[in-house]
């Protein structure tokens, strides 16, 4: 079993030729992403890397399964229209797979066809082999922990089989890598979810203003911030803080009555400006199998803007947050109240932790740090290995 990054950090070893890029043979990669740029998983795990990969001699052709219109309908609650689109776009992907291709490698985000049995997936995957498969969340739990006995029986081991047949499994954290190892994957590389650090400017508002506790997410993840509703109301009332929630439904503000709460829509163009209005970033999570597979992207965004964070001590949050240095970990109501209060009351502590967080991003969770490692994985997967 060749585990390229069992400790959570791929060996940072790029040859002089790879760094030069032009001296090496260019390779063609066919990317089957789940979404276009509106989908966070696709934008962060693959699409944001494309310009950098091109510099390393890797040309990527993208075929997204679901366009932005599909996600927009889901977020509006138009599930019937979204399902109709899903079938249509699935047929388009099938046509793409049946075409002859001169690509050197296929890069798959999670799976080719959600909710289709593995024998169909395997037959199509063999036509585009070799392939690498990438995971930034516990996609396998969508099937093996489904409420439907039929889904569990038919699809419960689907993702394991995809992992086992891949030339290399790229995992966003140790929890996902462990599942790949259990599934029998031959090669595994851990590459965390990162930000383009050049897009993120740091901010330090100083002590002379009403502090803002911020959260960024989507309607599908707003239940995590609602889980901490009582804590946030209590802290804001005690310390005179405000809430800024980016990305949830507008009506969520009614759940925080008595607190100065602002809810704004998310967009890729404005997200950095919105985070820059915050003083403290939060990432509350439940402690469940799905949450243990998350890659802590909110934390990384906050840190990239120089914010201290308070996060649930769940999954990879424990790796990203160095408790007491670049933020705090919290696992119960009293700890959440204590840590938020501590940061609100101490502007210098916020500044120190924010600076440490920005350093963490630049060194570990940035395109600059991870693009050469991803390029190495893709190049070597073409040759049937994972890392040089």
**Which sequence of strands runs across the widest sheet?**
1-7-6-5-4-2-3
Global geometry: globular
Name the helicity range: 40-55%
Secondary structure class reads alpha/beta
Tally of individual helices = 19
Number of strands: 13
- Whole-number mean pLDDT: 88
User: What is the distance, rounded to the nearest whole angstrom, between the alpha carbons of the first and last residues?
Assistant: 16 Å
Computed CA radius of gyration, to the nearest angstrom: 21 Å
Give me a quick take on this structure.
The protein is α/β, with parallel strands linked by helices and 388 residues long. The protein has 19 helices and 13 strands.
Task: Provide structural commentary.
The chain has helices at residues 16-20, 40-45, 50-55, 68-76, 79-98, 118-126, 141-144, 149-155, 158-165, 174-183, 222-227, 229-239, 271-275, 289-292, 297-304, 317-320, 333-345, 347-364, 367-382, and strands at 2-3, 27-35, 58-66, 105-109, 131-135, 168-171, 187-190, 212-216, 242-246, 261-264, 280-283, 309-312, 327-330. The protein has 388 residues and is of the alpha/beta class. The chain has 19 helices and 13 strands. Helix 9 packs across helix 10. 44% of the residues lie in helices and 16% in strands.
